[in-house]
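Researcher: Please translate sequence to structure tokens.
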Amino acid sequence: TRAVVMFAHAIPFHPKFLPIWDQLKRIVQDNPDVPFLYLQGDLHKFQADTPMENMDNFLRVIVDKGGNADPMEVIVDPASQGAPFKLRRRPLSVYQDNETS
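Model: Translation complete:
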């Protein structure tokens, strides 16, 4: 079983990046059984959506601006039925406590 995770800063459907976005849409459409997660930094306000029309296998998550929110842990389990990506927003103190122990 496979899954794809992509990290980017740019808004994927900005006119400047449309050729890349169009190619990505073709790849997602040609692989309907493969879940895709697009983690985006630009816009800086948390949001999770499926911006590709009729392609539920593509999930975009926009993360908050650095320093405005706690870290997000991404767990990928492509064998999971229906939910291959788990997103956990955890307080920074959880990570800091682990560093000192």
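Researcher: Any highlights?
Model: The radius of gyration is 15 Å.
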